[in-house]
Design goal:
- This protein is mainly alpha-helical.
- It has two domains: 45 residues; 82 residues, no CATH class.
- The chain is built from two helices and four strands; from the N terminus they run ββαββα.
- The strands form two sheets. The chain has a two-stranded antiparallel sheet.
Length: 135
């Protein structure tokens, strides 16, 4: 503002306040002579906000590993043989063969595409946060 009034921020609610006011019009915080509150030059950092991008990316990256940890013991118990390219036959449970082939294919797809995509997504998010903080 160019009217000679300096704008500050309420330390309680981060609402902009004029330097000449004795209380915040938004939350009622008192800035009078007996108060410990004083308007701040910059708004306080928001400590409660946290990005969950890292957790999501970690789960995406680890999903092929988690799928393999489930698949391998099941395939061993059902005496499954083959691979995702030619198909998997399960001798103890033939009805499970189609699912086993699909699960193995999903694991391979995840290892080649999901994990690198999750890492790239995380790196893009980290760069965006870093650039956003510098402004």
């Amino acid at each position: 503002m160019s009217l000679g009034i300096r704008m500050l921020f309420c330390p309680n609610c981060q609402h902009p306040v004029a330097s000449s006011v004795s209380a915040c019009g938004n939350c009622g915080a008192d800035f009078g002579s007996g108060s410990s509150w004083t308007p701040q030059e910059k708004p306080a950092p928001k400590g409660g906000e946290r990005s969950h991008l890292g957790v999501v990316c970690l789960l995406l990256a680890l999903s092929p590993v988690m799928l393999a940890l489930v698949n391998l013991p099941v395939f061993w118990l059902l005496d499954c043989d083959g691979n995702e390219g030619v198909g998997i036959r399960c001798l103890r449970a033939p009805w499970f063969s189609e699912f086993a082939t699909a699960a193995a294919g999903l694991g391979v797809w995840g290892a080649f595409f999901t994990a690198p995509a999750a890492l790239l997504l995380y790196l893009i998010g980290a760069v965006a946060r870093h650039v956003g903080r510098r402004r």
